[in-house]
TrEMBL record:
Functional description taken from the UniProt entry: Thought to be a Golgi-localized beta-glycan synthase that polymerize the backbones of noncellulosic polysaccharides (hemicelluloses) of plant cell wall.
A GO molecular-function descriptor: cellulose synthase (UDP-forming) activity
Protein name as annotated: Cellulose synthase-like protein E1
Listed transmembrane segments: 20-40, 52-70, 521-542, 562-581, 602-628, 648-669, 681-703, 715-735
Taxonomic source organism: Sphenostylis stenocarpa
Sequence similarity: Belongs to the glycosyltransferase 2 family. Plant cellulose synthase-like E subfamily.
SUPFAM superfamilies: Nucleotide-diphospho-sugar transferases
Binding site for UDP-alpha-D-glucose: E111, D140
Lineage: Eukaryota, Viridiplantae, Streptophyta, Embryophyta, Tracheophyta
The keyword Transmembrane belongs to this UniProt entry's keyword annotation: yes
Record carries keyword Transmembrane: yes
Length: 738
């Protein structure tokens, strides 16, 4: 037994084949250096064509090369983790810590109530002692429909949790379970109960959906729960009192399931909002939850999930505890991050939504350097660390001696609700450290990343756990504008982190590994790629049209480093993509999104950030993520790109696509019909032809969307007109200038 006590609760494996990778990337780097040397040593002389174009190419290639270097810490030494749940139960089953689960929702239209309660039900049914589990729903829209749905869920849970326990249901989200079970046959007792519970669920679902359609909760239901009276004084979602309801309190007889077992605590919270007080978005909601939950259940572990991410594995809580409770290494681990996985990714993933390389590769690499980012969902935290505790070497957590202050026992439910309410008021945070040193940090649109970084700056590490079977499954964006807007927010947030006071922290403290610093830079510098990529998409093609070479010709020895770097790097990326579970077509799609992100999302994020610095607070570009509803999901399943309403982003993308098409066509026409022996261009300007050619091939969906498709998801006519005009005039202007 004594020996067993020392066997760790998880193991760490290193990746193989790293030597090959190191040699290969060194050779690529040599190639990149040759490219730089070529650019510097071959600048056209004064008066020669293409001098400025050439210098621009050098700057762009310099930046691409330097940025490429930042990619390496991720791939140097990836680590893979494996927890041992059975050891955890052997040693700690009796003293498992309390866990508070925070689910955040913010908009009942984008995030329908039925989806939200499926997430809530799925985490309530974790394989974990229910008296140690509490689930909090933060509703930033303060929608009575969401409250009503949660109330219905609290009743349904009394049947659902025993059902899950009896038949070892997994996934524990009812909607997902009924979907997976549809095709398989089961024992008759299961089949009978399944029918009953499915009926219950469907009735509940239609009641909630009806309320949603009517836009309000039917009057006759108001008498069913006192909580509805809170909406009597409600004026709007940005102006209301705190609404806090403990729907299941874990001890009343009304909080027992049909088998008489205790149920997890279930709480609805809509924090106070006033128009004149900044609410700090999700970070503000999380901090209110932190305080309110400390009064009600005060769990030591906090799991934070988005409302669209249901649990796909009822064991993942125990998995995470293996890391946090490990006697030896657990003491320095602040949080365990799981990857964000999606249930509705199509086979070839047209929008690159799965982020496979990030989750299958890069986060493992960061794990070796001190831990992955905190990405705001699917993350298990330790409360005291999230609330600002600093690391020190003597620190050791004694899980056996955890004393749970049980406010539940002391106060009556009503008193408890009143006391907790005060913690979610607008004014509570005034003159406190909340948002600055405690809880999630304010003032950045990627509050989670900044918070994770500040935790690392306080000396802690994090762990990345990427299980075979995903811990949580969410919904990926299904239209191009959604994807572009999402990436704009991420890249803008990353850039803010770099410019903000938090970035100083990286240098001020010795805590963060230089490799990890590079990795953070890799993500935070996304926006700086916008201008170089635009340059590479425009200038070489225009010069091609004009007949001025910007790359070495094929017969020159300088051609070799270009060919090697381009070919080597793309084959490496392709291999990595396939290794992460993608398809070849998926890689091609990913490449397209990679291009679109850089030339639109990052560009707009860059411009917006700069405008903000100079005091223009409103974004000048109105970007709409809304799309025509009709048949969107059918097209998504057929992997047809959904462009949606016209927006500056789409015009930009279409212009770039057309510009390359015109340049390539113009060049061919010129060579074949006008200049004799014109095919020599394939020697003198092979790389420019190749570059334009690839850009045209990758943009095929745009041409289709502009001119061939008839459905609602095509590019709007106005975009077609604007972009054609812009692209043509750019070509004509460029040719006619000297
Ligand atoms: C989700 O869980 C089911 C079993 O419950 C499993 O078959 C499936 O592969 C999981 N999904 C993912 C993406 O891991
Ligand atoms: C392929 C797939 O699973 N598509 C689904 C993605 O999510 C939307 C919204 O939940 C569904 O309508 C699709 O069927």
């Amino acid at each position: 037994m004594a020996e067993k006590e020392h066997s760790p609760l998880f193991e760490t494996k290193r990746a193989k084949g790293r030597v090959f990778y190191k040699v290969f990337s060194l050779s690529l780097f040599v190639g990149i250096c040759f490219i730089w040397v070529y650019r510097v040593s071959h600048i056209p002389r004064e008066g020669e064509d293409g001098k400025w174009g050439w210098i621009g190419m050098f700057c762009v290639e310099l930046w691409f090369g330097l940025y490429w270097l930042l990619r390496h810490p991720f791939r140097w030494n990836p680590r893979f983790r494996e927890p041992f749940r059975d050891r955890l139960s052997q040693r700690y089953e009796e003293v498992l810590p309390k866990v508070d689960i925070f689910v955040c929702t913010a908009d009942p239209v984008i995030e329908p109530a039925v989806m939200v309660i499926n997430t809530v039900l799925s985490v309530m049914a974790y394989d974990y002692p229910p008296d140690k589990l509490s689930v909090y729903l933060s509703d930033d829209a303060a929608s009575d429909i969401t409250f009503y749905a949660l109330f219905e869920a609290s009743i349904f849970a009394k049947q659902w949790l025993p059902f899950c326990r009896k038949f070892k249901v997994d996934p524990t989200s009812p909607a997902a379970y009924f979907k997976t079970i549809a095709s398989s046959t089961h024992s008759s007792s299961h089949a009978k109960e399944l029918l009953t519970i499915k009926k219950l669920y469907q009735d509940m679902e239609s009641r909630i959906e009806n309320a949603g359609k009517m836009g309000r909760v039917p009057e006759e239901l108001h008498s069913k729960h006192k909580g509805f009276s809170a909406w009597d004084s409600y004026s709007s979602r940005s102006d209301h009192d705190t609404i806090l309801q403990i729907l299941l309190d874990g001890k009343d007889s009304s909080a027992k399931d049909v088998d008489g077992n205790v149920m997890p605590i279930l709480v609805y919270l809509a924090r106070e909002k006033r128009p004149q007080v900044p609410h700090n978005f999700k970070a503000g909601a999380m901090n209110s939850l932190l305080r309110v939950s400390s009064m009600i259940s005060n769990g030591e572990i906090i799991l934070n999930v988005d409302c669209d991410m249901y649990s796909n594995n009822s064991q993942s809580l125990r998995d995470a505890l293996c890391f946090l409770m490990d006697e030896d290494q657990g003491r320095e681990i602040a949080f365990v991050q799981t990857p964000q996985c999606f249930e509705n990714i199509t086979k070839n993933d047209i929008y690159g939504g799965a982020l496979q390389v990030v989750y299958a590769m890069e986060f493992h690499g960061m794990d070796a350097l001190g831990g992955p980012l905190y990405i705001g969902t699917g993350c298990f935290h330790r409360r005291e660390i999230l609330c600002g505790r600093k690391f020190n070497n003597q620190y050791k957590k004694d899980w056996n001696g955890c004393k749970n202050i049980d406010h539940m026992k002391e106060a009556s439910l009503h008193e408890l609700e009143e006391k907790s309410k005060a913690l979610a008021s607008c004014t509570y945070e005034k003159n406190t450290l909340w948002g600055k040193e405690m809880g999630l940090l304010y003032g950045c649109s990627v509050e989670d990343v900044v918070t994770g970084l500040s935790i690392k700056c306080r000396g802690w590490k994090s762990v990345y756990y990427n299980p075979q079977r995903s811990a949580f499954l969410g919904v990926a964006p299904t239209t191009l504008p959604q994807v572009l807007v999402q990436h704009k927010r991420w890249s803008e947030g990353g850039f803010q982190v770099l410019l903000s006071k938090y970035s100083r922290a990286w240098y001020a403290y010795g805590f963060i590994n230089p490799g990890l610093r590079m990795a953070y830079c890799y993500y935070n510098l996304w926006v700086t790629l916008s201008w170089p990529t635009l340059y590479y998409c425009i200038i070489p093609s225009l010069y091609l049209l004009k007949g001025i070479p910007l790359f070495p010709q094929m017969s020159s020895p300088w051609f070799i480093p270009y060919a090697y770097v381009m070919l080597g790097d793309s084959s490496y990326c392709l291999m990595e993509f396939l290794w992460s579970g993608g398809t070849v077509k998926g890689w091609w799609n990913d490449l397209r999104i990679w291009l679109y992100k850089r030339t639109s999302s990052y560009l707009f994020a860059f411009v917006d950030t700069i405008l903000k610095i100079f005091g223009f607070s409103e974004s000048t570009f109105i970007v709409s993520a809304k799309v025509a509803e009709e048949n969107v999901s059918q097209r998504y399943e057929k992997e047809v790109m959904e462009f949606g309403n016209s927006s500056p982003m789409l015009t930009l993308l279409a212009t770039l696509a057309l510009l390359n098409l015109f340049c390539l066509l113009g060049t061919f026409i010129k060579q074949v019909f006008i200049i004799e022996g014109g095919l020599r261009i394939f020697d003198t300007m092979a790389l420019q032809v190749l570059l334009s050619g690839v850009l045209v091939l990758i943009n095929i969906p745009v041409y289709q969307g502009l001119f061939l498709r008839k459905d609602k998801g095509r590019l709007p006519i106005s975009v077609a007109v604007q972009s054609t005009t812009l692209a043509l005039s750019a070509c004509v202007l460029f040719i006619s200038t000297r």
